[in-house]
Amino acid sequence: MSSNSFSYNEQSGGGEATELGQEATSTISPSGAFGLFSSDLKKNEDLKQMLESNKDSAKLDAMKRIVGMIAKGKNASELFPAVVKNVASKNIEIKKLVYVYLVRYAEEQQDLALLSISTFQRALKDPNQLIRASALRVLSSIRVPIIVPIMMLAIKEASADLSPYVRKNAAHAIQKLYSLDPEQKEMLIEVIEKLLKDKSTLVAGSVVMAFEEVCPDRIDLIHKNYRKLCNLLVDVEEWGQVVIIHMLTRYARTQFVSPWKEGDELEDNGKNFYESDDDQKEKTDKRKKPYTMDPDHRLLIRNTKPLLQSRNAAVVMAVAQLYWHISPKSEAGIISKSLVRLLRSNREVQYIVLQNIATMSIQRKGMFEPYLKSFYVRSTDPTMIKTLKLEILTNLANEANISILLREFQTYVKSQDKQFAAATIQTIGRCATNILEVTDTCLNGLVCLLSNRDEIVVAESVVVIKKLLQMQPAQHGEIIKHMAKLLDSITVPVARASILWLIGENCERVPKIAPDVLRKMAKSFTSEDDLVKLQILNLGAKLYLTNSKQTKLLTQYILNLGKYDQNYDIRDRTRFIRQLIVPNEKSGALSKYAKKIFLAQKPAPLLESPFKDRDHFQLGTLSHTLNIKATGYLELSNWPEVAPDPSVRNVEVIELAKEWTPAGKAKQENSAKKLYSESEEEEDSSDSSSDSESESGSESVEQGESGEEGDSNEDSSEDSSSEQDSESERESGLENKRTAKRNSKAKGKSDSEDGEKENEKSKTSRSSNDESSSIEDSSSDSESESEPESESESRRVTKEKEKKTKQDRTPLTKDVSLLDLDDFNPVSTPVALPTPALSPSLMADLEGLNLSTSSSVISVSTPAFVPTKTHVLLHRMSGKGLAAHYFFPRQPCIFGDKMVSIQITLNNTTDRKIENIHIGEKKLPIGMKMHVFNPIDSLEPEGSITVSMGIDFCDSTQTASFQLCTKDDCFSVNIQPPVGELLLPVAMSEKDFKKEQGVLTGMNETSAVIIAAPQNFTPSVIFQKVVNVANVGAVPSGQDNVHRFAAKTVHSGSLMLVTVELKEGSTAQLIINTEKTVIGSVLLRELKPVLSQG
Amino acid sequence: MIHSLFLINSSGDIFLEKHWKSVVSRSVCDYFFEAQERATEAENVPPVIPTPHHYLLSVYRHKIFFVAVIQTEVPPLFVIEFLHRVVDTFQDYFGVCSEPVIKDNVVVVYEVLEEMLDNGFPLATESNILKELIKPPTILRTVVNTITGSTNVGDQLPTGQLSVVPWRRTGVKYTNNEAYFDVIEEIDAIIDKSGSTITAEIQGVIDACVKLTGMPDLTLSFMNPRLLDDVSFHPCVRFKRWESERILSFIPPDGNFRLLSYHVSAQNLVAIPVYVKHNISFRDSSSHGRFEITVGPKQTMGKTIEGVTVTSQMPKGVLNMSLTPSQGTHTFDPVTKMLSWDVGKINPQKLPSLKGTMSLQAGASKPDENPTINLQFKIQQLAISAQAPADDAHQSHAAIVQTHQGASRIALQRR
Predict the structure, then answer these.
(1) By CA distance, what is A944's nearest residue in B?
(2) Is A917 in a helix, a strand, or coil?
(3) Is this complex scored with an ipTM above 0.90?
(4) B178-269+395-405 and B274-380 in the same fold
């Protein structure tokens, strides 16, 4: 009893409440049998009294205590009548707490709950939007079926409310009503349809959520709102972004054709393998038509990209899965960096992200290879994170990095977390089977582990070795002998069983040992684990068949033991084996084949990733995480063969005009919004009919608009030409304003746009005269922005005239696709090939731009490989005990854009301190610059230190000479860079590569023929050799026989394109295209011998 | 979306439950307890647990499990990220997020949770808005409330939720307008036995404290924006401006917030400012081992290294350790085998060291590996990503985490 009241005291929320609680306790007189019961009653009585008092403070205290009870999961339902009376309280906090109570218990006390409804109905009409919103929120949270009609009415009204906040709450209420009464679905869909048209960023996320919950299959509702959603996305709150992105991913998979080219598929390891021939054919058929991405598809991909920088892990993951599922494979690479960044987050976030990376890394190793080291295991990681990281490391292992990985694994095997150590051993086994070059190394390593002290490690090694040996039935007698010896010491059943199985399989290779093992096992049979017993029986059977002379009796003994075993599996097996191998009169035809049955060639087990089969789930979903289809999971459909009509996404102008009717309030809000975000500006301008559109900003919105306009043209082109004219006039007016603004802003850029303009001109002239001249004017004197507009318009026009001008079509589409790209990446060209006219500062600016807008096309990427080769700077003999080595870490130098970073390791080989190591006099050729390291105060005997410095070599292989000084001496040293280190790798697409290569012909091209053995021409060998010599980035190639690499020089940023084209026989053509012909030819000279040697 | 939330302490008691839709019985948590038992350690409890009718998604922070119950497919990160946001909010409100504090403030907690989710979908997660809706408890306010009977609930309706700048409230006024930016960088490095760095990466954040009147629109430019190529922003930062000009342009929230965080993985450039010399030996035959570690500074640009703590998980065979530190205090927990040594500041003239013997389990074979040493420390006024690199350290497989503060690379502009 008293304990009861104490716990009750605890609940009451401190301060004054406690005091009151004590009061309550004192009133309760402990009275035997019904004490417990009465105290409950009393307590509640007490609360009731407080609730009925006149003082707000007493009411508030009572409510606080009640909420405390709810929080603890205690039943407070009998207070319902007393509480519900306070729903109209003037005190906001009491009101809120009553709401909390109401929402919790209304379901249980439906009749009483109705008492409160009128209050909410009144509040729904309140002039204050926040009160309206909260009334709707609570009303819709009360799960009482009888008020469904009231809720429906309230939702309908609220969805037309002037305040976007109320509309947002209406969207939330839709889901609540739907879960309460699914029969309202049709009506609710109408409301959803209406709210989807809403232009407010507040509403977008919530209504899409409602859409997903109520009618995810009504994809047709999205069409008209698709472009708007894409454009609003950046400004929607983060939770809404997640929901919208997931929905749009599904939408895109039903509405657009696949952007994945067949060449890309080859990257997916072995995926093609299982596809039937028909599939292949279909694909090739498709390929015949050149693929052009729907501009809407592009819009989505482009507008989600900035969200990769969101602070919210869920948003980043959502964008990542969108890129994975709908972007062209060449562009998906940009997500890896962001995903790797998430790994610094909390344990739970890491867990989910790593799972998704594991699935991705199976299909596309290349994406995460540069981040290999980010997946190294830390001793502080929880085991589940460790095993996931291991999984990814295994997926990423290849010929180039396996040696580094194996070294890392060695550390893991020694980990104190034995579960993790065991997982590592399995991993080594998988690497050994996947990468044939290291199978023997791994096997040897595992054999060494057999003598490990820890039993779990040994057992796991045995199991893995068994699998490995099974795959390689070569001569491994030694290993088997070694393992046979282990039987004496090892106790883990799985390991013992594995050893026995191995000996049985290879009993003819170890003829002396096998019978002896059987003898030992016969002795210990009765005390073995079931698993081991079965294998003893198998071993016996196999030996009986191959070596019956020595083992006949032993086997029979074992069979007799097995016959009376407690486990029926073992008894069964015994009976089966006896019938099969021991000849007697009853034995049937089968026994003749006993040897074939027992000693058949067994297929090797396939060591596969457990994440292999997860790719059929959409990434980032719960189903993917669990690898089970979760309730409510929506399958991601396959790409349609033919894209559904894209015009459904066009928004009609009439509707737009309606929306333009000015609303004073909306305008006010807009001005606030304008202040903030650019894309929203666009959005608002269409809202409020003001001409603020001239401010311009995101091209994408315009593109969307142009679609609208283009549509209007289409609709009305036949008869109402006047309307069309006025439309285009307006357009041109805006256009001019925009141009003016833009021109003042972007003088520097105009160079780069020249080319595009020309394209555009030619295209506009080609496209028919349907277009009004005003548009043509504006676009030709223009900037790149107007381009998508005329482009999509012309496309539409083309479509209209398709039948007539079929011949025109092909060149047109080609143009469009080219332009698509340019528009996406306006400044990529000048960066790669800076004209001397550009001042360095402008160049730097452009570079900044380049980094952001065009990372998918040409940008500096991380080095594919960092050679560990060091060069001697100062030998210890000549340096009086001070030795110095340097190497090129291939990182962008932090001291300056044009510098090559160099790391110098200084070693003190003397037995005394070397003090004040610094760089003295520099003798640099003209133009060269050098950033020295900070002086080192002292270097201990036997100590070593690594420092880093930067040298700007001016793109030449001239030697940088300088003095390395200590306190007492000065040594002249020099660094001559290998030509390959004067480069920075860039990532570019094959298309761009070819384009750039087309420009750099004639004088800028050098080539050579290489002759070498064919085994030197495998892709991995060529890749390894090239990146070893030069810091270049690989360019994805559609052809097997052509390998492309791209880089730019550090100083001037000139492109350096390397092509290795394999010819018949054992020759290959090595081509280098670059403006810097001197470096080009030096690089050619260095690459040639490397590629030709064995 | 999120159906219910259960808060479970480390001893397995559910001390708070909140339901946003119909009530889910707390017996659903039995599945969670089962998983917890299987996992042995709290941090190994899987974050996602399927049960026949529900899915349990949990985060573990401050020794409390926050278990969300969901019924249908939902991106798991959505829920996990939200739960972390809940914990952050509690921390923001109460200073610490612990079981007693949550129990003491159960009403505020409930009110906050009520505002954060509507029908399981996040509604207001910006702490600026929440604080307008429900005022955080302070000692003064508790006293005032007790006397006057006023409440924690804001009496003015919040307007932030309605604006396009939901993270900033209107009508902010300060007499002294000021803004502070802290650059905090952490290096995370693994160094092998021979002292060579296996991996190292820099994780940096810029935390801001902005106290400016009205609706300030700030721009922030960097000396070397190239380093910031892997960044994530507070929602207030305009993505487009950053993409095109590499300039941060934003209307800041009022008060403290994290403006951006960045990640630099140029591992060759990371200079690790400390080294650890270790001499740990187990002898096969005897039941004693020797233990000695010394910590010393390296490449610190003349800055002091502070707040150094060394932790190391000793092998199971170690029964006890008798050690003497030259400075600071140390503890060894014979149950978890965790050695921790709180060093404090490093004085370059007199390097801190910890020496002594270990008593090993008799008869047990010697551990096959030296234990991992974790080292954490702080250096004020130093940003590692912009400084000259150098690294060298002699220690076993260890992770180093460090914090730097400095505001050197920032130029602030006020418009």
Answers:
(1) B392
(2) strand
(3) no
(4) yes
